[in-house]
Amino acid sequence: MKVRIFVRLKPGVLDPQGRAVHHALEGLGFDGVDDVRIGRMVEMDVADDTSDEALDKMCAQLLANTVIEDYRIEKVD
Amino acid sequence: MKVRIFVRLKPGVLDPQGRAVHHALEGLGFDGVDDVRIGRMVEMDVADDTSDEALDKMCAQLLANTVIEDYRIEKVD
Description:
The structure is a homodimer.
Chain A: E1 2-9, H1 16-27, E2 33-46, H2 52-63, E3 69-75
Antiparallel strand pairs in A: 1-2, 1-3
């Protein structure tokens, strides 16, 4: 089973990397860009019998820092 | 307009970060995980009249390294 996990900073948490990208886009002449935030995408092949609970645990224990980050799990097939 | 850009390593390009995560998951006792690959997600608010061409240019010029990375642009609304 293919799984995608999207990890992003919680709203309100400062994103210096996003700011740098925003600034760089402006420097390159791209106008009209407002807010930029950078997140992570983890693509995994897991055994078909992997439970939602196990996936959730992987995120909470390793893949995301739940103090400042939210995550979303998406099963691809 | 909200836009999400997903950047990931091309197939065949070595992903040491993904390997490290894979190894760490096994160390934590999560079995059945096969392949792990890490990508980036860039969320942007752009002006509604931003063309697909401009978005494509942003990716090619700054957001992705097209030598080793693929990108996908998704308009959220």
